[in-house]
Amino acid sequence: MRVLITGSNGQLGSEIKEIATKYSKLDFIFKDLPELDICNFEALQAFIMDNNINAIINCAAYTAVDKAEEDAEIAEKVNSKGVINIVNALQTVNGKLIHISTDYVFDGDHFLPYKETDPVSPIGVYGETKRAGELAVINSDIDSIVIRTSWLYSAYGNNFVKTMMRLGKEKKKLKVIFDQIGTPTFAGDLANTCLAILSNEQNRIDKAGKVYHFSNEGVASWYDFATAVMKINKLDCEVLPIETKDYPTLAKRPHYSVLNKAKIKQNFKITIPYWRDSLEGCIQKLNS
Ligand SMILES: NC(=O)c1ccc[n+]([C@@H]2O[C@H](COP(=O)([O-])OP(=O)(O)OC[C@H]3O[C@@H](n4cnc5c(N)ncnc54)[C@H](OP(=O)(O)O)[C@@H]3O)[C@@H](O)[C@H]2O)c1
After folding, report:
1. Residue 130 Cα: closest atom of ligand 1
2. What is the pLDDT of residues 18-39, one digit of tens each?
3. Residue 44: CB within 6 Å of ligand 1?
4. Helix or strand or coil: residue 55?
5. Is the pLDDT of residue 54 over 70?
6. Over the stretch 174-209, which tens digit does the pLDDT of each residue have?
7. How far is the CA of 156 from the centre of ligand 1 (A)?
8. C-alpha distances out from residue 129 to 31, 63, 73, Å
9. CA dist., res. 108 & res. 20, Å (int)
10. Pocket test for ligand 1, best of 15, 38, 59 (most atoms within 8 A of CB)
11. Closest approach atom of ligand 1 to CA 12
12. Which residues are catalytic?
């Protein structure tokens, strides 16, 4: 199977690149801007046809949550129209799609981990545009799934872990929000899951409903996450818990966005590492 990874220079795309050789049944083509823009339908369709693409893992997205509030048009273009283009282009070759979405489609007004069947209600532009992208996939008849994930970090790109490591070396004290609860997800674990699903020929990937939830196991606040980064790195920086109201941002974020992963574990027979174990692995890699 020939698999196109769109947005391949981002966190998830880069982690897929790193493990790609472990999946010998899959033949990969990695593309990102400016070479392949998912917003350009003609170019995308021609690329898929010319290169005999059978499947896409869409890692391309507009992910700047705060900037999206002021840049709604471009966020909509990439996260919604770009996904419609991918769906339409795959339709012509009968291709498969794994599309990645976000916990930010929920409003956070919950106290139990969100199931795939729970109602969505995004509270910001990023979440709204990602929901529109989900709907393009859900309403299509191509062999496709949407995997919602949360709090993604990796050895690549900019992310919370790297920011905490930098600030932990520069500062003696750091204030971090403790009233937003979710689960950190190592992009390498998500990458493995996507490739395991795609490489198993038994998996008609849209079986049992198209939406799946994936994060690492466990629960944390951003304060817990930051504290773990400092401890694992043995950094002498005190993390102080603060409330969301004391750290104003352009975009509102859900107070609670823990995802229930029972469906993906059952349907695809996968096991998911505990968030702190995966964090240790990623930090070890960053420090080596
Ligand atoms: N990061 C998180 O915390 C998080 C949480 C939950 C869900 N997710 C979802 O997980 C997925 C992967 O996220 P990530 O953190 O790996 O994202 P990322 O690091 O921001 O990577 C996204 C990649 O897509 C590229 N891109 C942007 N517009 C494009 C276009 N029109 N055509 C082709 N490529 C384009 C970006 O290029 P430029 O950098 O040049 O723009 C970037 O290389 C996304 O769907 C995201 O919404 C992320």
Report:
1. 47
2. 999 999 999 999 999 999 999 9
3. no
4. strand
5. yes
6. 999 999 999 999 999 999 999 999 998 666 665 558
7. 12
8. 22, 10, 10
9. 35
10. 59
11. 16
12. 126
